[in-house]
Structures are given as C-alpha cells and as structure tokens.
Amino acid sequence: MLKNHKCIPLEDIAAEFKLRTQDYINRITSLENMGRLSGVMDDRGKYIYISLEEMKAVADYIKHKGRVSISHLASKSNQFIDLESKAQLVEDISSITEIIDSLWS
Fold first, then answer.
1. What is the bridge-based pairing of β-strands 46-49 and 7-9?
2. 40: confidence class by pLDDT, cuts 50, 70, 90
3. Whole-angstrom Cα distance, residue 40 to residue 54?
4. pTM higher than 0.85, yes or no?
5. Residue 66 in 3-state DSSP?
6. What residue spans of 1-105 are helical by DSSP H?
7. What is the pLDDT of residues 49-74, one digit of tens each?
8. What is the DSSP letter of 17?
9. What is the largest CA-CA distance in the chain?
10. Phi and psi of 80, rounded to 5°?
11. CA 98, 99, 104, 105 torsion-angle sign
12. Among 2.30.30.520, 1.10.10.10, 3.40.50.11540, 3.40.50.720, what is the CATH number of 2-83+90-99?
C-alpha cells in the first residue's frame, strides 16, 4: 500500500487496517528497521515511501556534488523522488500486507 501510493496520510492507512495511527507508525518503524521499507514521516502526518533506486539517485548526486546543504538537497529532492502514485502488482501489495499482519500477530 505504501509503495503503491508513495505519499499517504498515516491516519488514513491506519484506518484502512483498523489500527490506531501510533500502532501503524510502530509497524512502519519495524519494517524500516528490518530493511523492508524505507521512507520519511513528515510533520503533517504523512509517510513518503522512498525506493532504493531513489535513495541511490540521492547518494549519487551527493557523491557527484561533494558537500551539499540540507536546504539545497531538499530543493532538488523532486528530481530524485517521484511522489506520484504507482500501479503495483497485486503480489507486492499482498506481501507488504502479510508482513504488516505478521508483525501484529
């Protein structure tokens, strides 16, 4: 679900799984710690999924430019991170759902 939508309000996704928002945040944190998910939670209550390819693009940019300020990197982030929703295979969505469900069990 997160990979499919790229940027999603945590409250909405938690409600879809019939969880409290904090419980869902804890699950996301667990998935990140296991290396199964990567992204950023913003101050407006949204989670932004960042793929490995996008992280590599950011790392390559930093290596190419050398020292880069956070504000400069933030201004360039739309070149590296696509926030448009993507159609994903049903298997991908199912596997993420299974992982989340297994964490709660």
1. antiparallel
2. confident
3. 13
4. no
5. coil
6. 2-5, 10-16, 21-33, 52-65, 70-80, 90-104
7. 888 888 888 889 889 988 888 888 87
8. T
9. 45
10. -105, -35
11. positive
12. 1.10.10.10
